[in-house]
Design brief:
The protein has 252 residues and is of the alpha/beta class. The protein is built from 7 helices and 10 strands. Strand 6, helix 5 and strand 7 form a beta-alpha-beta unit. The N and C termini lie far apart (58 Å). The structure holds S-adenosyl-L-homocysteine.
Length: 252
């Protein structure tokens, strides 16, 4: 059996209780060494085989899983954040399906939530932003034509860019072309929830330059949108005049 486990954004105590339990039980751990906090490996039991997938191809990862399965061992594939966001788990699941190796996914705290917590931010504010766009800029890996940043920018809502810290200049250009104003607030969170976390608060016009000054070229999220400045509208849910399933609203 293979467990895909979300390791969380960085801080070692942000893995789920379930994920930690699987880590402790694992006979084999394959972890994404470029981003998973190595301190999590302290949970591994004695004799556990540990592989760093940063040095491995998909075939090699699958080979380790297959060999473990032949010996009825329990494998944990430890991914950064939540495995469903840019986690490259589909291709692994497809290969496991072909080999009839059973697997299960244990969710994790995505870095997008780690970053919001560090910023004290709510991504969705009443009357300002009710949608969150999770995307990336096009670099060496292509992005479908219909998801060009300038087109997504037309929504003017909260946008979270993964895998784009090395492409800040391009992000700025595309978002400007798409219609976000130059004063739109932008936050960059480097290594959210790690001890070396860095937060940069800027605007669309200067964030790229500031990232360069701070030498932030990887492991960062670029967060764009007016929610970074806060909002004044209150939610209906807690409004005293608003009736909900649990509470009757009062007049005025
Ligand atoms: N599955 C992961 C994302 C993997 S893609 C998740 O849910 O968070 C890798 C990208 O995620 C990095 O390039 C960076 O943009 C972002 N990332 C991962 N961990 C991060 C962290 N602690 N702080 C900021 N960005 C992070």
């Amino acid at each position: 059996m293979v467990h895909f486990v979300g390791a969380g954004p960085g801080a070692e105590d942000l893995i789920t209780v379930r994920g930690q339990r699987y880590l402790r039980q694992a006979d084999v751990i394959i972890y994404a060494g470029s981003l998973v906090n190595p301190k999590l490996l302290k949970e591994a039991k004695e004799g556990c085989q540990i592989h760093n997938s940063a040095f491995m191809t998909l075939e090699e990862v699958i080979h380790v899983m297959e060999a473990a399965e032949e010996q009825s061992l329990l494998t944990v594939r430890l991914h950064t954040g939540d495995p469903s966001i840019f986690g490259a788990i589909r291709e692994q699941m497809d290969e496991l399906d072909k080999r009839k190796i059973p697997y299960e996914v244990c969710p994790g705290v995505s870095s997008l939530f780690g970053a919001a917590a560090s910023l004290g931010l709510e991504y969705t504010l009443p009357e300002m932003a009710q949608s969150v766009i999770i995307t990336r800029a096009e670099g060496r890996t292509p992005v479908p034509e219909k998801e060009r940043l300038r087109d997504l920018a037309a929504h003017q809502t909260t946008m979270i860019l993964f895998l784009s810290s090395g492409l800040a200049g391009k992000v700025k250009q595309e978002l400007e072309a798409g219609g976000y104003g130059p004063d739109t607030p932008v936050a960059v969170v480097y290594k959210a929830t790690w001890p070396e976390e860095k937060i940069l608060r800027a605007t669309l016009s200067d964030f790229a330059e500031r990232m360069e000054q701070e030498n932030i070229t990887k492991t960062a999220l670029i967060i764009v949108g007016n929610v970074l400045n806060g909002g004044s509208a209150r939610s209906k849910l807690y409004d005293k005049t608003f009736t909900t399933e649990y509470r009757k609203g009062s007049e005025g």
